[in-house]
Amino acid sequence: MAPGPTYSEIMDRLAPDEEGLARMAARFPMNYIAHPDDVARGVLFLLTDESRWTTGIVLPIDGGATID
């Protein structure tokens, strides 16, 4: 898993107000800061049969930050 910015106590320190969160979100193609559930969905995918042919990857959950 390679999560991008996710709402957490650390995020509260990095962007303590709505304006700071909006500036940070604007740096990502999806213009969104992840919630912990967004990251958990990636973990759940890897735990299901839907990912049974998936091996040896790093799964970015980063709002498009790693798009080339």
The overall pLDDT, averaged over residues, is: 91
- SSE arrangement, N to C: EHHHE
| Backbone shape | elongated
Give the helix level as a range of percent: 25-40%
Strand order of the largest sheet: 1-2
Instruction: Report the sheet-strand fraction.
Output: 5-15%
Identify the quaternary structure here: single chain
SSE class = mainly alpha
**Biggest sheet features:** 2 strands, parallel
Summed up, the helix count is 3
Characterize the structure shown.
The chain has 68 residues and is mostly helical. It has one domain. Helices cover 38% and strands 6% of the residues. It contains 3 helices and 2 strands; from the N terminus they run E-H-H-H-E. It has a two-stranded parallel ribbon.
Outline:
The protein has 68 residues and is mainly α. It has helices spanning 9-14, 18-25, 36-47; strands spanning 2-3, 60-61. The protein has one domain (2-61).
Features:
68 residues, mainly alpha, two-stranded parallel sheet, 38% helix
Please specify the SSE layout and strand pairing.
Blueprint: E1 2-3, H1 9-14, H2 18-25, H3 36-47, E2 60-61
Parallel strand pairs: 1-2
